[in-house]
Each structure stands twice: as structure tokens, then as C-alpha cells.
Design goal:
This protein is an alpha+beta fold. Helices cover about 20% and strands about 40% of the residues. The strands form 5 sheets. Strands 1, 3, 6, 17 and 18 form a 5-stranded antiparallel β-sheet that branches. β12 and β13 form a beta hairpin. The longest helix is centred in the middle third of the chain and has 15 residues. The radius of gyration is 20 Å and the shape is globular. The N and C termini lie close together (about 10 Å).
């Protein structure tokens, strides 16, 4: 068991005071068997008029922030502390009928899984589906765990990680064509590839602990992280991080889950003004362990 501390600062500056629309903040993890929230705080400058908490459609904790008036800057600082227990499923403890692919999900669970099995990105020529099929083999069958682990490790080994300033997530076809992307791009590629094979898969947003950054205070030394989960009968939602080739939750701090990356943006909001009113945005994320 490890105690992680996460400090996440986002600072916006503007060339003149602007009015703000409502902001949505996703930073507070839910308690689970593998992570227990010890503390969570959020400080916003200027002082907001109201902060209201809700659970979204996926059960994630969302803070809705209404600002009091115009300002030429806006700063969010969130801090969380949590106990984390690594679960590394070297051998998936799946139901026997799911050990070999293909398999069928239980009729009782299928209605709740359908939205995570359906594909949401155009693939008219079957490019993503064809790429995913190579991990199954010509016979169309194989060991379920081996197929998914090979898919995860292939993205880690065959694609180049590249931070991107532009917002949003590449489509799976774009990631395949460019052979590079961010963690969100790689997570979405694996999700859509797994869905093309009939697996239920969903997007995860959170943080990752990088040991050589422990104690670092360098601005921009870290960022939020993204990976995916695949639902396996008997094992439940299993974590796959294709950016790092991680299977299981080792060093992964899960904050929220969603069907699609667009539904799990850590901080989202708007301002009333011209595009040129925006000055700059600085992000700092530090994930450290406690003695």
C-alpha cells in the first residue's frame, strides 16, 4: 500500500477582465477496493460565487463552479491524498468461458455493457478493425488475456508518444496513420480496437506516478494521464495503459471513467469575450509518495 499525493494547478491569464461561464472540475477520485481517498481540497482564485457537487451519468464526482465576476486571471489548485493498493493481474481470474476468445457476455450484464461495446468513430474501410484483428490471428480465436495484453504492448512499442498543445483527441484512424499521439489518443485507439473485437471498453482519466519525478517542483513536469479499461467476466473492469504498457493499476490513480474521452475532461469551462482576449494557460501536476 502506498500513499500518493497529487497537486494539480491550472492557471489561465487574459489580456483584459472577462466574464466566465460555468466550469466543470473532475479531480476527486471515488473510493474503491484498490484506492481509498484520504483528503481532497480545491482552491479557486478569484473566489467563486458557488461550488456545487454532483455525480455525472457515470457516477464521477464533478464540481460545478460559478464565478462571481470578471477577472483577468483564473487559477484552480486541487490536492488529493489517497491510499493505493497495486493490483497486477498477471493471470486474469476470469470465468472459464471467457478465457478463450471469442466469448459472449452474460445476458444480465449485456444491457449495461452495450454502450461500451458499440463503436463511435467512423471506420468506413475497416482500418481499425483490420489492425485489431492481427492480435487475434488468422484462426479468429485465441487466449483472451494474451490478445488484450499484446494489443496494449503493441501500442506501447510501435507508436511514438508526443505531447500536443492542441486540445481534443485524435481519431483512432489518425493515430494509426501518424503512428504517434498522446496518452488520450492511445487510450482511444485501444478502446475502439477492443470494441471492434466485441469487447466492452471504456476511457479512464487520472494521474500516473513517475518515480524519477518524486519531489519535482518543475512547472509542467507532469500532466493528467489517460488509459482504458476492458470488462472481462469474472475479473471485472481491468486496467490497460497502452502508453506505458501497464496491465493492472500499478502507479495509476483513477479519477473518472467515461464512454468517450470527450466526457472525461479534467477541467472544462468558458469565458465571454473575443479569442484574442485569451493570454496563456499554465499547467503543473506533481504526483509524489509519502514516506
Amino acid at each position: 500500500m502506498t500513499v500518493y499525493s497529487v497537486r494539480h494547478i491550472t492557471h489561465y491569464t487574459y489580456k483584459r477582465p472577462v466574464e466566465f461561464g460555468q466550469h466543470r472540475v473532475l479531480f476527486r477520485p471515488r473510493d474503491s477496493f484498490d484506492q481509498r481517498l484520504l483528503d481532497a481540497t480545491m482552491v479557486i482564485v478569484p473566489q467563486p460565487a458557488q461550488v456545487r457537487w454532483i455525480h455525472d451519468v457515470f457516477g464521477n464526482c464533478i464540481a460545478l463552479v460559478d464565478m462571481a465576476g470578471p477577472s483577468d486571471h483564473l487559477r484552480f489548485e486541487t490536492n488529493i491524498r489517497l491510499d493505493h493498493t497495486p493490483e497486477v493481474p498477471i493471470h486474469f481470474e476470469m470465468d472459464s468461458e471467457a478465457l478463450t476468445y471469442p466469448f459472449s457476455y452474460d445476458e444480465e450484464e449485456l444491457p449495461d455493457l452495450r454502450c461500451t461495446i458499440a463503436r463511435y468513430y467512423d471506420d468506413p474501410d475497416g482500418v481499425v478493425a483490420h489492425w485489431a484483428q492481427q492480435f487475434v490471428g488468422a484462426g479468429g480465436a485465441g487466449q483472451t488475456g494474451h490478445i488484450l495484453m499484446t494489443l496494449c504492448f503493441s501500442i506501447r512499442q510501435s507508436f511514438a508518444y508526443a505531447r500536443r498543445v492542441e486540445r481534443g483527441t485524435q481519431t483512432p484512424i489518425q493515430t494509426l496513420q501518424r503512428r504517434q499521439g498522446t496518452c488520450r489518443d492511445f487510450a482511444l485507439l485501444m478502446i475502439e480496437a477492443a470494441r471492434s473485437l466485441g469487447f466492452a471498453a471504456r476511457f479512464v482519466t487520472g494521474y500516473i506516478y513517475v518515480p524519477d519525478r518524486d519531489g519535482s517542483q518543475t512547472l509542467g513536469g507532469g500532466s493528467t494521464h489517460a488509459w482504458c479499461q476492458v470488462y472481462l467476466p469474472g475479473a471485472g473492469w481491468v486496467e490497460f495503459d497502452p502508453t506505458n504498457g501497464i496491465v493492472g493499476n500499478k502507479d495509476l490513480i483513477r479519477v473518472g471513467v467515461a464512454r468517450d474521452p470527450r466526457q472525461a475532461i479534467p477541467l472544462w469551462g468558458s469565458y465571454d469575450g473575443e479569442a484574442e482576449d485569451f493570454g496563456d494557460m499554465a499547467v503543473q501536476v506533481n504526483v509524489t509518495t509519502e514516506p
